[in-house]
Design brief:
Blueprint (H helix, E strand, L loop, with lengths): L2 E3 L2 E10 L3 E3 L4 H4 L1 H11 L3 E3 L7 H16 L6 E7 L10 H9 L6 E5 L5 H14 L9 E8 L12 H9 L3 E9 L6 E7 L7 E2 L7 E2 L1 H22 L9 E4 L4 H10 L21 H8 L1 H5 L5 E10 L3 E10 L3 E6 L12
Parallel strand pairs: 2-15, 5-6, 5-7, 12-13
Antiparallel strand pairs: 1-9, 2-8, 3-4, 7-8, 9-14, 10-11, 13-14
Helix pairs in contact: 3-4, 7-8
C-alpha cells in the first residue's frame, strides 16, 4: 500500500568517494581482454573508485556528513536523527553511527542507529529517517536528520587465489557513502513511498560471517525485470492522477544492461534515466544519491523550483523500495573525495 508524507523536505545530498580510481583494463591480466570487454559492455562500468587504504565506511561517511552540515549551515545540536545504512559497518558493536555521532559533535539528544540493508537501503532509509523526524513534531521547530548510506566493498574473506567469476564480481563494485539532509517542515512536498520484501529468496545474495560473498546474478536480473518492474508499475498506478510525471528516474545502479531492460519494460525514455555506473560501478546503497549528485547540472537546468523524481532501490533481501518525491532544483548536491583514515581512539587514549 502506498504511503505518503507531506511534511518532509530533502535539503541536500553529499556523496564521498575514495580518490583512487581503478580502470577496468587492469583486470585483463586476470580475465583476458575478451571477457573484460564483454563485462564492460554488460555492466557499463569502465572504472571504479576503490579505497586503497584501510578505510572503512565511517571514513567516508564522516567527511560526507561534515560537508553536508557545512553547506546547509546545520549545527551539531540541530540534528535529532542520525541513521547509517550499510552492509559493512566499521565495528561489530556498537553501531558505527555512534562513532560518527562523536566525530560530528552531535548532541546526546539524538536518535542514532545502524540499518543492515544494501541496494534498497537508500530509499528505505529516507522513509526511516522521515518517520523518526515526524515523532518530534513541528512544535519543536524544524527537526533535522541525516541519512548516511553506502559501503566499502572490500570483502575480508575473499583472500588467496580467485576464480574468474570472483574477479568479474570485483569489477562491478565501487566504494562510496552518501549523506542526505532531511527536515520536517510545514512546507513539505508530497512524498509517496512503498516497500516490498521477499525473505524466501534471501540466499540470492549472501555473505556468511566467515565466507566470501555469493551472488546469483541470474536470479537478481530476473527479480529486477519481473518483480521490480511490476512493483514500479503498480506504484505509479496508485499515485494521484494530478501528480506531475517524474522528470528523472533514479534506480539502484546494479548494472547497465539490467537497468536498460527495466526502462524498456516500463517504457521509460532513456534520457530520463540518471546513471553513476560508468566511473563508479555499483556502490550499493550509495548508488542512487551518487547518481543524483553526478547529474546535478541536469537537475539545476530546470527553473520550475521543484523537480519530481522517482527513486527505486532493489536487490539483497530480496527487497525493493520505491519513492516519488520532488526536490528543489537548488538542492545542495556535492561530490567529495577522501582517502583519510579517521582513528576511533583519541590521541590521549
Amino acid at each position: 500500500m502506498v504511503g505518503k508524507f507531506d511534511d518532509i523536505e530533502i535539503r541536500g545530498i553529499v556523496t564521498c568517494i575514495p580518490k583512487n580510481e581503478e580502470d577496468m583494463q587492469e583486470f585483463v591480466e586476470h580475465l583476458g581482454e575478451k571477457r573484460v570487454k564483454k563485462q564492460i559492455r554488460m555492466t557499463g562500468v569502465k572504472s571504479r573508485h576503490i579505497s586503497h587504504t584501510s578505510q572503512m565506511v565511517a571514513d567516508l561517511a564522516i567527511p560526507a556528513a561534515k560537508t553536508l552540515m557545512d553547506r546547509l549551515s546545520w549545527k551539531p545540536e540541530d540534528i535529532r536523527v542520525l541513521v547509517l545504512v550499510t552492509q559493512h559497518p566499521s565495528f561489530v558493536t556498537p553501531a558505527t553511527s555512534f562513532f560518527i555521532q562523536r566525530e560530528l559533535g552531535i548532541s546526546k539528544e539524538c536518535l542514532v542507529f545502524d540499518v543492515n540493508l544494501g541496494c534498497s537501503g537508500y530509499v528505505s532509509g529516507l522513509r526511516i529517517v522521515s518517520s523518526c523526524l515526524r515523532q518530534f513534531g513541528l512544535e519543536q521547530g524544524n527537526p533535522k536528520g541525516i541519512l548516511l548510506a553506502g559501503d566499502i566493498q572490500r570483502d575480508p574473506y575473499q583472500v588467496g587465489p580467485k576464480t574468474a567469476d570472483q574477479w568479474a564480481d570485483m569489477m562491478l563494485f565501487g566504494d562510496g557513502v552518501s549523506a542526505t539532509g532531511i527536515e520536517l517542515t510545514q512546507e513539505g512536498s508530497p512524498y509517496f513511498f512503498e516497500e516490498y520484501s521477499d525473505g524466501s529468496d534471501f540466499l540470492t545474495l549472501l555473505q556468511e560471517h566467515d565466507r566470501a560473498r555469493v551472488m546469483d546474478g541470474e536470479r537478481i536480473f530476473e527479480y529486477a525485470i519481473n518483480d521490480v518492474t511490476d512493483y514500479i508499475g503498480q506504484f505509479c498506478e496508485a499515485l494521484p492522477k494530478e501528480l506531475t510525471r517524474p522528470e528523472f528516474y533514479v534506480f539502484h545502479q546494479a548494472q547497465k544492461f539490467m537497468l536498460q531492460n527495466v526502462a524498456m519494460v516500463l517504457s521509460i525514455d532513456e534520457e530520463k534515466m540518471l546513471y553513476s555506473l560508468e566511473h563508479h560501478g555499483n556502490t550499493s546503497s550509495a548508488s542512487i544519491p551518487l547518481a543524483i549528485c553526478l547529474n546535478r547540472d541536469r537537475i539545476r537546468r530546470y527553473d520550475a523550483g521543484k523537480i519530481p523524481l522517482l527513486l527505486c532501490g532493489f536487490g539483497m533481501g530480496l527487497s525493493c523500495s520505491i519513492a516519488y518525491l520532488s526536490v528543489d532544483t537548488n538542492l545542495v548536491l556535492e561530490l567529495v573525495e577522501s582517502d583519510e583514515k579517521i582513528p576511533y581512539k583519541r590521541q590521549s587514549e
